[in-house]
Write a structure and sequence with these properties.
Blueprint lengths: L2 H11 L8 H9 L9 H11 L4 H16 L1
Helix pairs in contact: 2-3
C-alpha cells in the first residue's frame, strides 16, 4: 500500500496521519520498513497483531492504542 492508499486508510478511520501519533504505533505493529508505505505482508502482520480485519475493527482498536501511547 503506497502513500495514497495509506492516506485513505487513515482517513477512513478518522485519523489525521500528519498530526496523530497513533499512526506511528500502527506502523510499529505492522513492522513497516518504510514510513508511509506498507507492504502486503506488513499490513497483514499488523492486522493480525492488532486483531483487526476491517476499518470498523481498526477504529475500535484506536482507543486501546491511544491508551498504550499514554502508558
Amino acid at each position: 500500500m503506497e502513500e495514497d492508499g495509506i492516506v485513505k486508510f487513515y482517513a477512513d478511520m478518522g485519523v489525521n496521519m500528519e498530526t496523530d501519533i497513533v499512526c506511528l504505533l500502527v506502523s510499529l505493529y505492522m513492522g513497516a520498513e518504510t514510513m508511509g508505505e506498507y507492504k502486503k505482508a506488513e499490513f497483514v502482520k499488523g492486522c493480525e497483531a492488532l486483531g483487526c480485519d476491517s476499518i470498523a475493527s481498526f477504529k475500535a482498536a484506536l482507543s486501546r492504542l491511544r491508551q498504550e501511547l499514554k502508558n
